[in-house]
Design goal:
The complex is a heterotetramer, with two copies of chain A (about 375 residues) and two copies of chain B (about 400 residues). Chain A has about 375 residues and is α+β, with helices and mostly antiparallel strands. Chain A folds into three domains: about 110 residues, Orthogonal Bundle (Butyryl-Coa Dehydrogenase, subunit A, domain 1), CATH 1.10.540; about 100 residues, Beta Barrel (Butyryl-CoA Dehydrogenase, subunit A, domain 2), CATH 2.40.110; about 140 residues, Butyryl-CoA Dehydrogenase, subunit A, domain 3. In chain A, a hairpin with a 3-residue loop joins strand 2 and strand 3. The longest helix of chain A has about 35 residues. With about 400 residues, chain B is an alpha+beta fold. Chain B has three domains: about 90 residues, Butyryl-Coa Dehydrogenase, subunit A, domain 1; about 110 residues, Butyryl-CoA Dehydrogenase, subunit A, domain 2, CATH 2.40.110; about 140 residues, Butyryl-CoA Dehydrogenase, subunit A, domain 3 (Up-down Bundle), CATH 1.20.140.10. Chain B has twelve helices and nine strands. In chain B, strands 1-4-5-8 form a four-stranded mixed beta sheet. A four-stranded antiparallel beta sheet of chain B has the order 2-3-7-6, with no helix packed on it. The N and C termini of chain B lie far apart (about 50 Å). The chains are: A alpha+beta (about 375), B alpha+beta (about 400). At the C-D interface, strand 6, strand 9, helix 8, helix 9 and helix 10 of C face helix 9, helix 10, strand 9 and helix 12 of D. Strand 6 of chain C pairs antiparallel with strand 9 of chain D, so a sheet runs across the interface.
Chain lengths: ~375, ~400, ~375, ~400
C-alpha cells in the first residue's frame, strides 16, 4: 500500500501476520469442509473483535477507534489474501457505515458499541433478484401509524444467516428508505444460499414484519452513499485476493520446470506476468483513491467507487483465470487452493454491481 | 439417386427398424440406468450397432467397423440425430474409438489389430491413456515411468496422472521410458496393458468442479506383454505425437450446446435474466456488446470448421488447422460459460440447493470444468507454439511445441 | 481461398500475377505522389476492363460473364493485397449490383454493358454525415409530375470524382428511393475529399437536380440489399490488404535480427503471430461465407455481411497496428509501405459501417 | 506560512513582474514566430528565466539551475500555468534538459559540467542524441559506429538514425564503439561532439505522419574531444542505461490534452459527432463502452502516477515503475487517437483540405505519429522484458531488456 501512515503500516503488519499465521487459507478449507452453517468459525470472528478491527470505522465516542476507510482497507486486503471468512465486512464496515451515515443519535448509541464488541452482527439487504439494481426496490413498507409493516424478499444477503440485525432497503410510497429490522422480529425468515465460494449468504423473507417509526435509517441518497462505501471497501478485499493469486502465480513461474527450464523464463509467460503486474498496480491506485476519497469526503466518491469496482473486478477476473491456466493441471484439483480464489473472485465481482454495472454507471456520472 | 442418397435412405430405414423406441431422445449416459427394461434395450441397441460396424463406422469391416467413408459416417450420425437415436459406443470405449483405435490402425501389427480393435468398436472394452505424469505437465517427453524388459513382458514402475476413466477401464495405453540413457524423446515406448492386474492401482482426482473422471494411476511392477508394444521400441514419441493429433482433432469442435438441441440460445437466456429496453435490445449494453462478440466468434468458428472441411474435399484431415481450431473452440467454450454466469448474476454463482435451477448449477460446473480445456490436450500456449513453428515456419523458440 | 472452382482458381492466379507484376504497391506510391485527381491511373483501369473484371457480376445477356460474388471476391482480395487503385469496386461491384437488383429492364440494358466496357463509372451515394447511417436520408427528392427534383448533399462518395453516374439514396415523402443521376446533370457539383489513404472520394452536392420518373432504381429494401453486397465485397478487399500486412510481418519476423537472433524466435512475437494467424483464418471464413451467401441467395445474408465486416474489420485494425509495431522504426517511415496499409485499413473500416455499427446490427438481427 | 507557501507567493509575484503579457496563453512553439515584437518578448522572457535558473530549476545554481526541490519545481510550473506562462527552455534545448543534463550531472567531470550545463539551462544550446542505428533497433548494444583515438580527439565513423532534431542541434551525445574486440556491451563509450563540423551530415526522415524532427545522421571522420568523453572509456553502456531511464521517466505521463486545457473532453467530442439517446447516453453503445474503458484506464493511469509519486515521498524517482507507466501511457495515447478517429467517422480520416477541421486533421497526424510511442525509448516489448526481469525477478529470457 502506498504512502501509509505509521499507524496504517503497523496495522497492516499486524493483520498480515495474524491472518497468515492464525487463519491462512488452510483454515478456510477446514471451515468449508466442516459444513458450518454460518460459514465462518467463532474463533476467527472473536480474534478480529479482540484486535479491534470491528471498531476501525466507529468513532471513539461509540467505542471504536475512528481510523477511517483507507485503514480498514489495509485490513480487508490482508483478509482477502487468505480468504479469511468472517462477518467483519458485512457488519463492521457496511453495517457500521449505514448506521453512521443514516442513523439517529439514538440508533448510533444503541447499535455501534455492539457492532464493536461483536454482540450485534449487521448486514445490508438490498438486492431482490439476481442482478444488483438498487434503483428497483420492490419490498414494500406500509405505514401503520406507529411504524411500518414490511413484506417482500431479499436475495444474496451477505452473512445473512449469521446476522442479528438487517438494514433493509424498502419502498415506501414512491420513496426508498433504509429500515433497521432485528433478525428476531416476527415474520422474518431466512434460508442459507450455498454459493460457489462457500461463504455465508441467505435469502431473507419479510412477511408482514412490523417495526417502529424509529427504525428508519436514511433514504435513497444514504443508501447510495453506503453502497459506494461498500464498493470501495470490497475493492480492497478483491485486490488482496487477486494479489495473492498473482504472488502464487509468480512463485510458480519461478519454480515450475518444463522443457528443462523454469516456465517463467518463457517470454510469452514473462510478458503475461508483466501485463498482469501492470494491471495490478493500476487497480491498486483506483482502489486506494476510492477509499481515500471517502476519508476526505471528496465529491467524486461515486466515480471513484465505480472506477475501483470495475478495474479491480477486471483484474481479479483475468488474474483468477490465469492463476488456473498457468498452474495447469494442478490448478484444476480441489486439493490445491487455486480453485478457491477463482470461485471467490466471481462472487466478489457480482457483489454491489459487476464490472458492466459500474462501467455504465461511470459513463453516466461522466455525462455520456 | 446418387450413391450417398441411397446410403441415406438405407441408413434411415435401418435405424427405424433397429433403434428401440423406448430409448428415443435419451442421451448417451444410460449405462447406469436402473430401469431393467431400458437397460436391456440399451444393450440390444449396442449389440446391433456393433454387428453393423457402426460403433466406429469408418474402420475396416475386418476390425469391427463398417468401412464407411467420411460422408457416409456423417450421414449415419445425421440420420440418428433425426430419429433421436445415438451411438453410445465411442463413449463406452473411453479413449478407444477416438484415439487408441486410429493409432493402432496406423501403427499396429496385424495381430494387435485383431486383438484390440473389435473390443473397442463394439464398446465392450474401455481404454484409458497413461500419458501425463505429475512432474511432466506440457513437457510430456520428460516422463519418468520406466519399463524394463523381463522375458516376454515389460515390468513397469511409475506414476501417471490425468488418466481419464482409469478406474473403470479394462486396458491402458501407456507411454513409458525404455531407455534411460537416450535423449529425452528417444528412449520412449508406447505399450498396451490390461488394468486388471495386481501391479496397477488407481485413485480418482477431485477437481475444483467436483468429482471427475480423472485418476492418478500407479504402476508397481505392472506387466505388459512385449507383443503389446505399439510401434518400434524406443520410438513411442512418434506414436504419441500421432495420438495427440487425433486428440486435438477430436477437440476442435466448439462444445455442442448439448442434449436435444432445444436448449434456449444464450441471447434468449440473457433476455430472460437481464431484460430488454423498449427497442428489444438487451438492457445491459456492456453485456450485450460482449455477448455479440461471443456469438460472432462462435459463428466464425463454425464457419471455419466447415470451410476447412470443404477445402479438404470432404475429408477432415488431421491438419495444422487443428491447433487454430482448438484454441478457438477453447475461447468460445470458456467465454460462453463466463458469460452465462454473468448473465445469471447471483443465481449463476450458486453451488447447490433448491434456490438454484439445474441450468444454473450445471453452468457453474461447466465453467469450472471448462478451465481445463485450455490446459489438456496441448495447452493454449503449446498450441500457439505449434502454430508459430509448424504452420508459420518461425524458428524454434525456447519452448518446444 | 477455400474450395474454389477451377475457374475461380485460374482467375485468382491471373489476378495475383497481374496485380503483383503490373500494379504492385509501388505503382500506388507513384500514383499518390503524382497527385492525379481521380486517384487511379487510366492504365490500371483499362487493364482491368480488358481482363473482363468489370463483367464478373454482370449477366451474359448484358455483356458480362455472370460468375458471381465469390468470384469477384477472389479478384478483390488480390487487389487489396497491393492496394491497386481503381473504380472497379465502386462501379462494377456496388454499382452493377444496384442496377441488377433495383434497375428496370431498360436501365439494365442501358447501363450494364457500359459498366462492362468501362464507358460508365457508377458509384453509390448514401451517407450524408461522418457516420454510416442509411436509415437517415435527408437528401430530398420532390415529385415534379414527370419526375423528381433532388436537393441535398452526399459525403465520402467512393470514386466520387471519377464517377460518370451516381446512384443516389433520396428521401421521397417518408420513403427512400434509389435514383440514377448522371454526373453531368444540371445542379450536380462535387469536390474531392483528400483522405488519409490517398484514394478517390468526393463530397457531392445536388442543387435542384431534375431527373425523370424512370430514374428510380429501387427502394429502401433494395438499398439495404445493395449495401449488404457492398459490405461482403469490401470484406474481401480488406482481407487481402490485411493478409498482405500479415505476410509482410511474417517475412520480417523471419529475417530481422535483434539480440543475435531473428525476432520471430522470441516467443512473445511468435505467439502474437499465431494469434493473428488464427484471427485471419476465422475472418476469412466469415468473408467467404458472406459472398457465398449472396451467390446462393441465402436468407441470412444480412447477418453474414455484418459478421464479415465486423470480424474482418477487427482483424485489419489489429493487423495494421501490428504491422507497424513489429517493423519498429522502419515501419514509421514513409519510405516503407507499411503506412499505406495502416491508412487504408482505417478508411476501409469506416466504409459501409464500422465494426461497432455491424456488431450492433448483428445483435439486432439476432433479436437482442 | 510554510516555506513552500512563501515560495509559491514569491513565484507568483515574480511571474507577474516578468512574464510579458503579450505572450499570455501562447504555447511553446514560438521560435518561428514572424511577428518581430513577439519575438523580442519571447527572447527577453527566455533570458529572464535563464538568469533566474528556471530553465532547469532543480539543477544546482552553479550550473545554471536554481537549486530548487521537486516540490518547488512543481510550484513553478503550476504558477506559470495559472498565469498562462510557460517555460520554453526544455523544448529549445532538445534532449538537453530532460536527458543529457541529468546524466552529465551524474557522470560528468567538473570541467564538463562547467562547459555544457549552462548552455542547456539557458536554452541557448540544443542537444540531440545519437543512439539508435539502422541495424540495431531495440538491440542498442549491437551498434557499429566506431570511434578511434587520434591525439586529443576521437575520430568517429558510422551512421545513426532517429536522431531527433539533429538538423538543428549544436551538440550531440553519441554512443560509439571504442573497443571492437570486447563483448557487445563492454566496448561502448559515450562521447559529446559539436554538430557544426565537416564530418557530420544530417538528413531528415519523412514519416507516415508527414515531416518529422527525426534525422539520419552520418559521421564521416567526425571529431570529438577526448575531454568530452562522458564516463569512463568503454563503459558507456552504464551511462546510456541511465540516460534511457531518464527518457523513460520523461515518457511516463499520458500525453497532456495539450494547449490551454480548454479542449473539449473526448466524451464531449463523441456526443457532438455521434449524438445521444433520450437518456443522454452516447447513441453508439459499442463505442460508448470502449470510450468508458479508455477513460477509466486514463484515470487509473493518472491515479497511479500520483500514487507512485506519493509513495516516493514527493520525489519522483527513476524507478522500476517507469516501465509500467510508459506502457500504460502508450496504450492510453494510442487508444485515444484511435477512438477520436472512430468518433469522427469519415471526417476523422481526412488528410488535408477545407472539408476537414484542424482538430480532425491534427488527430490524424497524432494517430500516425503516436504509433511511434510504443517503439521508441524502449519498445512496448522491451518494457515488458524489463518488468518481467527487473521487477518481477523472472529468469533472463531470450530477449534482453
Amino acid at each position: 500500500m502506498a504512502a501509509l501512515t505509521e499507524e496504517q503500516s503497523m496495522l497492516r503488519d499486524q493483520a498480515k501476520s495474524w491472518v497468515t499465521e492464525q487463519f491462512p487459507v488452510q483454515k478456510f478449507r477446514e471451515m468449508r469442509d466442516s459444513g458450518v452453517v454460518a460459514r465462518f468459525t467463532p474463533e476467527t470472528w472473536q480474534g478480529m473483535i479482540e484486535m479491534g478491527w470491528t471498531g476501525i470505522l466507529v468513532p471513539e465516542q461509540y467505542g471504536g477507534s475512528g481510523l477511517g476507510y483507507l485503514t480498514f482497507g489495509v485490513v480487508l486486503e490482508e483478509i482477502g489474501r487468505q480468504l479469511t471468512a468472517s462477518p467483519l465486512f458485512a457488519s463492521a464496515y457496511v453495517g457500521a457505515t449505514a448506521v453512521m451515515l443514516g442513523g439517529s443519535d439514538d440508533q448510533k448509541q444503541a447499535i455501534l458499541p455492539k457492532v464493536v464488541d461483536g454482540s450485534v452482527i449487521l448486514t445490508l439487504a438490498v438486492d431482490e433478484g439476481p442482478r444488483h439494481d438498487p434503483a428497483k426496490i420492490a419490498l414494500k413498507a406500509e405505514s401503520t401509524g406507529s411504524g411500518y409493516q414490511l413484506s417482500g424478499n431479499k436475495t444474496f444477503v451477505v452473512e445473512g444467516m449469521a446476522a442479528t440485525d438487517f438494514i433493509v432497503a424498502a419502498s415506501i410510497d414512491d420513496d426508498v428508505k433504509l429500515l433497521h429490522v432485528p433478525a428476531s422480529a416476527d415474520g422474518v425468515s431466512r434460508e442459507a444460499m450455498s454459493m460457489v465460494d462457500s461463504r455465508g449468504y441467505a435469502n431473507v423473507h419479510f412477511d408482514g414484519v412490523e417495526v417502529g417509526a424509529e427504525a428508519v435509517m436514511g433514504d435513497a441518497a444514504v443508501l447510495e452513499q453506503v453502497l459506494d462505501c461498500a464498493r470501495a471497501g470490497i475493492g480492497a478485499e478483491m485486490l488482496g485476493t487477486a494479489s495473492q493469486a498473482f504472488d502464487m502465480t509468480l512463485d510458480y513461474l519461478k519454480t515450475r520446470v518444463q522443457f528443462g527450464q523454469v516456465i517463467g523464463s518463457f517470454q510469452a509467460l514473462g510478458h503475461r506476468a508483466a501485463e498482469l503486474f501492470g494491471q495490478m498496480e493500476l487497480s491498486r491506485s483506483c482502489m486506494e483513491a476510492a477509499l481515500q476519497g471517502i476519508d476526505a469526503d471528496a465529491d467524486d466518491v461515486s466515480e471513484l467507487a465505480s472506477l475501483s469496482k470495475a478495474k479491480v473486478g477486471d483484474f481479479i477476473h483475468e488474474m483468477s483465470n490465469q492463476l488456473i491456466q498457468i498452474h495447469g493441471g494442478i490448478g484444476m484439483t480441489d486439493e490445491f487452493d487455486a480453485g478457491f480464489y477463482l470461485k471467490r473472485a466471481r462472487v466478489l465481482e457480482a457483489a454491489y454491481g459487476n464490472q458492466a454495472f459500474h462501467r455504465d454507471r461511470y459513463a453516466r456520472l461522466l455525462g455520456f | 439417386m446418387s450413391d450417398l442418397e441411397t446410403f441415406r435412405a438405407e441408413t434411415k430405414a435401418w435405424i427405424e427398424d433397429n433403434f428401440p423406441a423406448s430409448l428415443k431422445g435419451s442421451s448417451m449416459g444410460l449405462e447406469g440406468e436402473s430401469d431393467e427394461s431400458a437397460k436391456a434395450d440399451f444393450e440390444s441397441w449396442r449389440q446391433r450397432l456393433a454387428e453393423k460396424g457402426w460403433g466406429a463406422p469408418t474402420w475396416p469391416t475386418e476390425y469391427g467397423g463398417a468401412g464407411a467413408s467420411d460422408p457416409e459416417a456423417k450421414i449415419i450420425s445425421q440420420e440418428m440425430a433425426k430419429q433421436g437415436a445415438f451411438n453410445p459406443i465411442p463413449l463406452m470405449a473411453g479413449m478407444g474409438v477416438t484415439m487408441v483405435g486410429p493409432t493402432v490402425l496406423e501403427y499396429g501389427t496385424e495381430e494387435q489389430k485383431q486383438k484390440h480393435l473389435r473390443g473397442i468398436a463394439s464398446g465392450e472394452v474401455r481404454w484409458c491413456l497413461g500419458l501425463s505424469e505429475p512432474n511432466a505437465g506440457s513437457d510430456l517427453a520428460s516422463l519418468q515411468t520406466k519399463a524394463e524388459a523381463d522375458g516376454d513382458t515389460f515390468k513397469i514402475n511409475g506414476q501417471k496422472i490425468w488418466t481419464s476413466g482409469a478406474d473403470i477401464s479394462q486396458w491402458c495405453g501407456a507411454l513409458v521410458r525404455t531407455d534411460s540413457n537416450a535423449k529425452k524423446r528417444d528412449g520412449i515406448s508406447f505399450v498396451m496393458l490390461p488394468m486388471d492386474q495386481d501391479g496397477v492401482r488407481t485413485k480418482p482426482i477431485q477437481l475444483i468442479s467436483g468429482v471427475s473422471p480423472f485418476c492418478e494411476t500407479f504402476f508397481d511392477d505392472a506387466r505388459a506383454e512385449k507383443s503389446d508394444l505399439l510401434g518400434p521400441l524406443n520410438e513411442g514419441w512418434s506414436v504419441v505425437k500421432r495420438l495427440l493429433q487425433h486428440e486435438r482433432q477430436s477437440q476442435t469442435q466448439a462444445r455442442p450446446a448439448g442434449g436435444g438441441g432445444s436448449k434456449p440460445t444464450l441471447q434468449e437466456v440473457a433476455k430472460g435474466y437481464v431484460g430488454t429496453d423498449e427497442s428489444g435490445a438487451l438492457a445491459d449494453t456492456d453485456l450485450r456488446n460482449r455477448l455479440t462478440h461471443h456469438l460472432m466468434d462462435s459463428q466464425a468458428h463454425s464457419l471455419t470448421t466447415s470451410r476447412i472441411t470443404a477445402e479438404a474435399r470432404g475429408q477432415v484431415k488431421v491438419s495444422a488447422a487443428a491447433s487454430i481450431l482448438k484454441n478457438s473452440a477453447t475461447r468460445i467454450a470458456q467465454g460462453k460459460a463466463e458469460l452465462t454466469m454473468e448473465i445469471m448474476g447471483s443465481q449463476g454463482i450458486g453451488w447447490d440447493g433448491d434456490n438454484f435451477s439445474s441450468e444454473e448449477l450445471d453452468n457453474v460446473r461447466e465453467w469450472l470444468w471448462g478451465k481445463a480445456i485450455s490446459i489438456y490436450g496441448g495447452s493454449y500456449e503449446v498450441q500457439n507454439n505449434i502454430i508459430s513453428k509448424n504452420i508459420l515456419g518461425l524458428p524454434e523458440n525456447t519452448q518446444k511445441g
